[in-house]
């Protein structure tokens, strides 16, 4: 049986170097929906995606749809789509259907494309992260931060049937603070300082159910039990006061406090839900933001008051927004002001206590615009300012001028999960591979994609941690034939220091080779007896099945993996290149099927000719 490996299939039969981009109807609707997010990078990226559809793409990536994982999309290739279609829809019977593969497709906006051609949308699918997809179709157009923002919104707007919002109050609020009830113990939900605290910590919420509820987003797990994916307190506001910047604020009844969730897409869903309900919510989802809110799509600063019936409890929770409590009149305020409020409580103790305002020595913080008790402050060398010690983090790595204390929600800070440290953003690079920031000085850029026809690799800086075991350094492979030739003949390789292992495979000698350019060889049976040519000197024992058939050489079933460049070099040294080319020309000009295909590869005459032409092109491409 004549058989091709992945390398032969991709190199010889893939004549579609470009593809026309199609989105499924539902994915198209989602992108158009996101394109209406005015004044946002989300809308800008969505607009670019809408404009991308029906255009020619250099890579063969098309028929793009949702994936099971909301962080991914799935795609197929025009080559596979055609192949899968022909079984149910022969081209001679449905010629119009195949016009969608032409440069001027006829069926662009037809929903029937999604409904009729089920073979396209269910078979030969490959998943890819939406972030990596954007980098591939829009190289160097958007920053990592912009793509991350779009990814969060993309994930947030995808509806899950088992995912829903619920409003709870009373003792049910304490129930959802229990980490055992979380969908995943991750992100701000998993890191909440109130997670798993005793029920007595939450009585200021549970005993004032007329003023405090909790919005939860839950989803059933595999056992059918509802688990928490996000939560936020919902306050009924009694008094709204203007500020210098907002003297006459709009009135609203409910305010959604800080959102805690398993990822940022859930935060976005909760904020979208609050807007749909006519609620106000925090403009910055942070415990250091008090007066800034968003209502009816507008941001402004205001004072809010909540009148409680019950205020005296043995324990108090850490409060994100309504930090100050006046026990004498039972009013909560959305600030932590201390001046002229002696005797009132500041609720910021994660241990269930409180800080009673007194006349103790204070330092002034320019960053927070307030006085901080001296014993609770810390000096920030980078900011040249005093900060709250309890909500500050210390940066100990990176350039000396960037080291020191920062507010933990400082915009220029990123978190390096590899080293479990905060970094100043100038000392960090976002790694798409790891999914988080890493220290630039501890990273290298690697090859993460290789064009299967040209051998060109990605031009974008693609960092991984230097101690990561998921890449191979070029220092380990720079003496290999394939590497020396691909660097010499193709762009961008010299911009990187290694290559992801997922692109490689080991050959029979244990050397790393490119998986896309691997070739399967068979051991020969006494080749000289068949060639009988004094000019030919074969110093190798292994040959590709197609070449063996062209030259009339018998082979054993035993196989081994090699790379195309090394193998073509062997052919050149043996002076077999021209003989194979002559045999190909002869076979193409003959009416007889010189190459016999088995049932699995029983192809028409034009495909046989295409295969032979592909082999000719291949010999030229991989000559060392």
Q: Describe it for me?
A:
The chain folds into 3 domains: 1-16 and 472-624, no CATH class; 18-156, no CATH class; 163-359, no CATH class. The two termini are 30 Å apart. Strands 6, 7, 8, 10, 11, 12, 13 and 14 form an 8-stranded mixed beta sheet that branches. A 6-stranded antiparallel beta sheet has the order 9-15-17-16-18-19, with no helix packed on it. Helix 3 packs across helix 8 (144-156). The protein is an alpha+beta fold and 624 residues long. The chain is elongated and about 110 Å long. A hairpin with an 8-residue loop joins strand 18 and strand 19. It contains 18 helices and 38 strands.
Regions with little confidence, pLDDT below 50 for 5+ residues: 1-17, 104-116, 592-603
Task: Tell me the number of strands.
Answer: 38
Determine the fraction of residues in helical runs and give it as a percent range: 25-40%
Strand content: 25-35%
Write the SSE topology:
Elements: H1 6-13, E1 19-20, H2 25-34, H3 41-52, E2 56-57, E3 62-66, E4 72-76, H4 78-85, H5 112-116, H6 118-122, E5 126-129, H7 130-137, H8 144-156, E6 163-168, H9 171-175, H10 187-190, H11 203-206, E7 212-220, E8 226-236, E9 239-241, E10 254-256, E11 260-261, H12 264-276, E12 280-282, E13 292-295, E14 298-301, E15 303-307, E16 324-326, E17 331-333, E18 345-346, E19 355-356, E20 362-365, E21 370-373, E22 377-380, E23 385-388, E24 392-395, E25 404-407, E26 413-416, E27 421-424, E28 428-431, E29 436-439, E30 443-447, E31 463-465, E32 471-473, H13 481-489, E33 498-500, E34 504-506, E35 512-514, E36 518-524, H14 527-531, E37 542-544, H15 545-551, E38 555-563, H16 564-573, H17 577-589, H18 605-621
Parallel strand pairs: 10-12, 30-33
Antiparallel strand pairs: 1-2, 3-4, 4-5, 6-7, 7-8, 8-10, 8-11, 9-15, 12-13, 13-14, 15-17, 16-17, 16-18, 18-19, 20-21, 22-23, 24-25, 26-27, 28-29, 30-31, 32-33, 34-35, 36-37, 36-38
Helix pairs in contact: 1-18, 2-3, 3-8, 7-8, 8-12, 17-18
């Amino acid at each position: 049986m004549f058989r091709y490996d992945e390398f032969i299939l991709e190199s010889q039969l893939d004549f579609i170097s470009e593809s026309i981009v199609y989105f499924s109807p539902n994915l198209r609707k989602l992108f158009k929906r996101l394109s209406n997010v005015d004044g946002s990078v989300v809308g800008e990226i969505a607009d670019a995606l809408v404009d991308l559809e029906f255009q020619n793409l250099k890579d063969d990536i098309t028929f793009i749809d949702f994936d099971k994982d909301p962080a991914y999309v799935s795609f197929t290739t025009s080559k596979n789509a055609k192949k899968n279609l022909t079984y149910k829809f022969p081209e001679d019977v449905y010629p119009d259907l195949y016009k969608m593969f032409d440069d001027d497709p006829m069926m662009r906006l037809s929903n029937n494309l999604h409904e009729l051609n089920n073979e396209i949308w269910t078979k030969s699918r490959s998943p890819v992260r939406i972030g990596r997809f954007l980098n591939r179709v829009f190289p160097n157009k958007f920053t990592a931060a912009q793509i991350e923002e779009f990814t969060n919104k993309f994930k947030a707007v995808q509806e899950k049937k088992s995912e829903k919002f619920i409003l709870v109050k009373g003792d049910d609020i304490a129930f959802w603070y229990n980490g055992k009830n979380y969908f995943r113990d991750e992100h701000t939900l998993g890191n909440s300082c109130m997670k798993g605290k005793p029920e007595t910590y939450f009585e200021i919420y549970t005993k004032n159910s007329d003023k405090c509820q909790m919005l939860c987003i839950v989803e059933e797990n595999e056992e059918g039990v509802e688990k928490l994916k996000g939560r936020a307190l919902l306050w009924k506001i009694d008094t709204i006061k203007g500020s210098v910047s907002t003297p006459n604020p709009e009135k609203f009844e409910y305010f959604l406090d800080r959102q805690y969730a398993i990822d940022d897409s859930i935060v976005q869903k909760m904020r979208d839900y609050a807007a749909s309900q006519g609620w106000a919510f925090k403009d910055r989802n942070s415990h250091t933001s008090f007066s800034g809110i968003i209502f009816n799509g507008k941001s402004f600063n205001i004072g809010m008051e909540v009148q409680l019936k019950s205020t005296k409890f043995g324990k108090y929770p850490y409060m994100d927004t309504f930090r100050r409590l006046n026990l004498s009149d039972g009013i909560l305020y959305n600030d932590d002001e201390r001046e002229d409020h002696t005797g009132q409580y500041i609720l910021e103790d994660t241990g269930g206590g409180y800080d009673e305002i007194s006349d103790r020595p204070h330092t002034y913080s320019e960053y927070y615009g307030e006085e901080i008790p001296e014993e609770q402050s810390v000096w920030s060398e980078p900011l040249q300012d005093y900060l709250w010690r309890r909500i500050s983090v210390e940066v100990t790595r990176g350039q000396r001028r960037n080291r020191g204390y920062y507010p933990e929600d400082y915009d220029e800070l990123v978190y390096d999960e590899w080293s479990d440290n905060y970094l100043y953003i100038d000392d960090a690079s976002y790694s798409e591979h790891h999914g988080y920031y890493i220290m630039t000085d501890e990273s290298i850029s690697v090859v993460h994609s290789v064009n299967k026809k040209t051998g060109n690799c990605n031009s974008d800086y693609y960092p991984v941690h230097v101690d990561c075991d998921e890449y191979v350094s070029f220092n380990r492979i720079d003496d290999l034939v394939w590497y020396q030739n691909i660097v010499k003949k193709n762009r961008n390789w010299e911009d990187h220091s290694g290559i992801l292992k997922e692109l490689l495979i080991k050959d029979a000698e244990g050397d790393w080779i490119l998986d896309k350019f691997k070739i399967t060889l068979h051991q020969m049976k006494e080749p000289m007896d068949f060639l009988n040519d004094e000019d030919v000197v074969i110093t190798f024992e292994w040959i590709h099945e197609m070449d063996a058939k062209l030259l009339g050489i018998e082979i054993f079933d035993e196989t081994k993996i090699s790379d195309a460049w090394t193998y073509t070099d062997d052919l050149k040294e043996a002076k077999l290149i021209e003989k194979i080319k002559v045999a190909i020309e002869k076979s193409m000009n003959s009416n007889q099927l010189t190459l016999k295909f088995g049932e699995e590869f029983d192809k028409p005459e034009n495909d046989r000719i295409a295969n032979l032409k592909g082999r000719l092109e291949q010999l030229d491409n991989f000559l060392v």
